[in-house]
Specification:
Number of helices: 1
Structural class: mainly beta
Number of domains: 1
Helix content: under 10%
Number of strands: 12
Radius of gyration: 35 Å
Distance between the termini: 89 Å
Largest sheet: 5 strands, antiparallel
Order of helices and strands: HEEEEEEEEEEEE
Amino acid sequence: MKKAILIALAASSAIATPALAQSTSGTIAVTGSVAAKCSVATPITGTIALNELAKADGTFDTSTPGVASGGLTKTFSVVCTSANPKISVSADHALQFVPTSASTGYTGDVHYTATIEADRAGTGFASVAYLTETPLGIQSVSLGDRLKNAAGNVRVKASAFHTVTATDLLYAGSYTSTITVTIAPV
C-alpha cells in the first residue's frame, strides 16, 4: 500500500507542477512609400504685361518696362519629392499679332527669351531658356539636385524682347504669347 501511495503522490505532483514557460519572439515590418511627384500650392499661371510696345515712331520700344531691366519674372513655390527633377520651358511663338494682310517694313512678331529657373536644395539653381526667334522645341534640363524646400523656389522669366529688324513698324493690335513650363519628377 505504501508503494501505491507513493506512486499516487508522484503522479499527483507531476500533474500539479506547472510546465516550464517557453517564450517566442518575432519582428513585424512597418513600411510605406512616397511616389516621385511635383506639385504646387497655387497653379503656375499669371500674366507678364508689357503694355505699350511701340515708340512714337511705331518701332519696338526697347525701354518698355521689363525689357530694359532684363525681363519680367513670375515666382512660384513648387514641391518635388524626387531626387533630381527635370525642368522644361517652351513658348507657342513670339509675342504676336496676326494682321489681316502683311506689309513690307512691318512686323507682328516681338521675339523674346522664356527662362525657367529652379533653386537647388544644395546651392545655386538650374535654368533653361527657350528663344522664340529660333524655336528648337521644348528645352529641358535636370536640376542636378533636389528642389529646394522653400517658398519662391521656381521663377519664370520673359526677357530680351526684340524685333528681327529694328526699323520695322509694329502693327497696331494686341500681341499675345504663352510660355509653358513643366517641373517633373525623374
